Amino acid sequence: MVQEILDKPVSAYMHEVKTVVRANGTVKSAIERLREEKVDQVITYLYVVDNWEKRRLVGVLPTRRLLLADSDDMLLGDLMVSDVQVLDKNVTMGEALRMFDAHKYLALPVVNHDGEFLGAIDVGVFMDEVGDLDRMERLQESFQIIGMRVQQVEQSNVLRGYGLRMPWLFVNIAGGLICAAIATVFSEVLDNVVVLAAFIPLVLALNESISIQSLTISLQQIGGMKETLQRLIREFIKEWKTAGMLAITSGLVVGIASVFWPGHLWPPLVIGGSILLSMVVSAIYGLMVPKILHALRLDPKVAAGPVVLMMADVTTLIVYLGFGTLILL
């Protein structure tokens, strides 16, 4: 039942809003309009439109700002919040829920593709299902990160369960075979520098962890807001900086720890340097792959996990062993 609600569009649950005002109206006119409308619902926000004909949403006005305005003659356009998070009428309730969780709003306006204000949806819609929803969300996130939907697994028989899970195991098998081939190609450096082989599990674990962290953040960012090039660049730069700091710290810690293994000082430099480079790349994979899948109208929650892990493992081994061959042989 909960999943059925989350898969429906927000237009099915939005409500008509009487607290609509014009940007060129005044505080006094807004209060008079609310009295005329005889609003019988809790007033969380006033929704500001450009005019009554097109009703293009240009901002929201919290009731606190309206009541505490310095003058009754102040224009609502000067009081409103113009940077508005909106929901397209076709996004799902699940995406709406993620936006409520991310921004902590009490209500969100719903618009069409032209920006015309259609209504609003408030957080109370989810309250009746909150107990089951909390459980469902945790299960969904855990299963979807490895390529399955909870509902599919719960309702499947043995053969269907096999069919749902095996394709993603094939992705893992393919990644493992590629990694085995890479290790074979670089067998010379592994034979001559044993410490590199000893640190492979740790290096892979670090890259898999940072890629899944970035993937989780990316999935949370995919919601009702339209993905623009400017927003994508801003997210990319932020993740690149964060991943760089994490990679530097991890590379230094592991590199210093590897000094205590028998051998020369070059292997620790190779280990630390390859961790630095591969972790940044793996983080970018985690950020970008879900967005690419979403743009292709594929389900990133199901497909992104196995794909990102395979890409992170393959890239990490190439960087790690390639760097080792270049420096140590």
Detailed description of the structure:
- This protein is 63% helix and 8% strand.
- By secondary structure, the chain is mainly alpha-helical.
- The strands form two sheets. A three-stranded mixed beta sheet has the order 1-2-3. Strands 4-5-6 form a three-stranded mixed beta sheet, with no helix packed on it.
- Helix 13 runs antiparallel to helix 14 (300-328).
- The radius of gyration is 26 Å and the shape is elongated.
What's this, in brief?
This protein has 329 residues and is mostly helical.
Q: What name does the CATH topology of the largest domain carry?
A: Tetracycline Repressor, domain 2
Proportion in helices: 55-70%
Gross CATH architecture of the largest domain: Orthogonal Bundle
The termini sit apart by 61 Å
- Which class do the helix and strand fractions yield? mainly alpha
Strand order of the largest sheet: 1-2-3
| Total strands | 6
Mean pLDDT: 82
Helices, by number, come to: 14
CATH superfamily of the largest domain: SLC41 divalent cation transporters, integral membrane domain
Give the C-level CATH assignment of the largest domain. Mainly Alpha
Question: Which ranges are low-confidence, i.e. pLDDT below 50, for 5 or more consecutive residues?
Answer: 128-133
**In the residues, how many domains can be counted?**
2
Q: Kindly provide the radius of gyration, computed on alpha-carbon positions and rounded to a whole number of angstroms.
A: 26 Å
H and E order? HEHEEHHEHEEHHHHHHHHH
Largest sheet properties? 3 strands, mixed
Large-scale geometry: elongated
Percentage beta strand:
5-15%
